[in-house]
Amino acid sequence: MKERKKFLDINPKIWGPIFSLVVIIVIMGIIDPGFIQIEFKDGRLYGSLIDILVRATPTAIIALGMAVVIGTKGIDLSVGSVVAICGAVAAVLIVETQLPFFMVVIVSVLVGGGIGFLNGIMVSFIGIQPIIATLILMVSGRGIAQLVTGGRAVSFDSTAMDIIGSGALLAIPVRLWIMTALVLCTVLLLRKTALGLFLESVGANAKASRLLGIEARMLKVIAYIFSGMCAAVAGMILIADVSTAEINRLGLWLELDAILAVVLAGASLNGGRIYLGLTIIGALIIQTLTTIIFSSGVPVEYNLIVKACIILAVLLIQSETTKNYVSQLRTKSLENRHAE
Amino acid sequence: MGVLEPVVDVQPLLEIKNISKGFAGVQALNKVSFSIAPGEIHALLGENGAGKSTFIKVLTGVYTRDSGKILFDGQDFHATSSGHAQTQGVSTVYQEVNLIPTMTVTENLTLLQQPKRFGLISPKRAKQRALEMLERVGLNIDPSKQLDSYSIAVQQLVAIARAIGTKAKLLILDEPTASLDAKEVLRLFELMRQLKSQGISIIFVTHFLDQVYEITDRITVLRNGSFIGTYATKKLPQAELIHAMVGKSLDELTSGSNRETSDSADDVLRIQNFGKQRFLKPVDLSIAKGEIVGLAGMLGSGRSELCEIIFGAQAVDQGSMEIAQNAVHIKSPKQAIDHGLGYCPEDRKIDGIIAELSVRENMILALQAKRGWLKPIPMTEQKAMVESMIERLSIKTPNLNKPIGELSGGNQQKVILARWLLTQPTLLLLDEPTRGIDIGAHHDIIAIMKELCEQGMSLLVASSELEELVIFAHRVVVMKDRKKVMELTGSDISQKSIVNAIAQ
């Protein structure tokens, strides 16, 4: 009993996003039982749920970096463009050079990290507002990616990319392994060292953190570098999907989905707490909605509107105001019952 | 239990009946009942964590009460928000001035009820109304100037003007005098008497007992969320009041003053000609091992500034510094901490606590920062450290994972103190360690300070409360106009000598 109480004390917040996701899936399962069916075919799993996981991977990985940046009271609007740049770099390297695949990966991730470093320097050392600093690259980044590819869509033929795009290991798509590994590494890095605590401390109160000996500036740069690297990985997964880097659409608006995933996880844009696992859940909620709407036969022009309405509903369900309102209603009804 | 004494035989303006409010695991208010007569100034007293703030929030509808009844003007009173409470005639002015500093005084005063002409704001009439409101509180200032161009005291009066401007019958003043100097306090009292004569009742929350005796008619004391009693101020000696508040007598609180002079050979800190342009004039100071040096002076005298430059929060541009006989150049708090210093800043809420983080995290942060991020303190070790500190400093918190922002001020201060004790500093800088803290926690913190110095730690304590400095300091440095003006030792230390030094 005592143990259980302790468990609830630690994280009462985690139930909101999980509850929302389960509700959406259960409702869909009732409407269309095929939705929750999972099949085993040709050595891998198939089904709507698996499809959602697969499609959510890029957003989830970007959201992971975004969660860390938002935890430091920042924001990274450039991730969509970083996806485009890193996707372009990877595609061009595969087509134009003989570099081994792991070198392609390393170079792309370094490019992403380098862009994150620039963002971090602008925010932390030059003192530009995060939203403005990263807006610069959000706008110019897609142009840079055009320069990298020479303005055309770059198609490639690479076994390694095919494996990332559609391969499976132990019946589970490869990219899910990549995401799981990334999440685990991030959790280890943030929670098994004091890095996560320092980032949260700086995000929640930078001045007090300085006065107790935490130098915020390098920490913030690290957060943006991490976000850039995550975007690079997401970029490679996205081009692997179609074996083409099409700059105009690659990673477009992904920064908004990533921010939304972080917010759905219950994080505050004012910095402070970082919720890594819940951010993944947030990304899954977004992708589940997208998949449902696309497969439901709602006319295309309504897709985004329906998605926006459902997300608004999810945010309302999770908001403090709603919780307070519900608990007030409950007390009132109890009082009424007592009065009777 | 106290004696309930109605001051006058009229219907009370406010009647509180058996109000209770609990938060997960903590009963913040337990069946509190008292009443307030029209035109009465009523002190609400108690330690931090006694339930004063909770009570105000329940009364003004910020929190919903669990049970109990409130009658206001004979009517059932159920505020749903502080704005709603205000329209019903209950206005609150909080310790932290609740106005918008970058707006003009007029805009601040008329924000909620803009005088309009053809649907547009009429600046002329807005100014007119602002002037009327200011006149009621006897404030003669230019309302078209930006609010933050005036002192905190004036801002406080503007806040009161706004509060009573809306036909308030009951005004709640929560620690209004905490950041005012003596003259400004007199001005506030004058205003309070004036409002009283207009029939407005006032609930006055404060930690300054002298002020309670100067201005209030009756006193209600809360302790640990429970109602202790309501007393007529004139019939309650101060010693009994303190007893009601903490359950300890005044003798216990002030006894055991320690006045040995230490050997100056083992100075932990020596600064010479240490200062910064337009910040602090050069200061010479040395602190010996196990010594408590008090820093006295008025607000803005340079007390806090001295702490800040010693700790490296502000860069110095002249002078030298030695720590344990070694010359050092400290450029950041991190370096100061590495040299064995610790610092509890004056503004606990902004510079001290990290409100969203838990008690545990707040407590271990400084030690963790000292060790670096690659060497995390294992969780079991953290818990053991934090639990022993909670016990040693008797910190009241339901559990280790409670966000520190939800604790009372006194407990927050103890957590910050514990944060530094874990780093085992040789010299601890405490800026107003007892500000905004009730007598009980006050007493605890002074006892802890003495214990630390007996264990060989040195302390530099800035405080505006002279009686407190006199009790524990071995030496008192008096600051004035950003300059050190006097150093008092041994039997020369008294409130009178300090006041004389400041007044010179």
Which characteristics define this entry?
heterodimer, A: 340 residues, mainly alpha, ABC transporter involved in vitamin B12 uptake, BtuC, two-stranded antiparallel sheet, two-stranded antiparallel ribbon, 15 helices, disordered N terminus, B: 504 residues, alpha/beta, Rossmann fold, 3 domains, six-stranded mixed beta sheet, 22 strands, 35% helix
Question: Roughly what is the average pLDDT of chain B, rounded to an integer?
Answer: 81
Average predicted local confidence, pLDDT of chain A: 83
Q: Can you count the beta strands of chain A?
A: 6
Structural class of chain B: alpha/beta
CATH classification, class level of chain A: Mainly Alpha
Shape, per Cα inertia axes of chain B: globular
End-to-end Cα distance of chain B: 47 Å
Major sheet characteristics of chain A: 2 strands, antiparallel
Structure description:
The complex is a heterodimer of chains A (340) and B (504). Helix content of chain A is 74%, strand content 4%. Chain A is mainly alpha-helical and 340 residues long. Chain A has a single domain, classed as ABC transporter involved in vitamin B12 uptake, BtuC. Chain A has a two-stranded antiparallel ribbon. The longest helix of chain A has 27 residues. Chain A is globular and about 80 Å long. The two termini of chain A are 34 Å apart. The N terminus of chain A is likely disordered. By secondary structure, chain B is of the alpha/beta class. Chain B has 3 domains: 237 residues, P-loop containing nucleotide triphosphate hydrolases (Rossmann fold), CATH 3.40.50; 155 residues, 3-Layer(aba) Sandwich (Rossmann fold); 74 residues, no CATH class. Chain B contains 18 helices and 22 strands. In chain B, strands 6-9-10-3-11-12 form a 6-stranded mixed beta sheet, sandwiched between helices. In chain B, β11 and β12 form a beta hairpin. The two termini of chain B are 47 Å apart. The N terminus of chain B is likely disordered. At the A-B interface, α9 and α10 of A face α11, α12 and α13 of B.
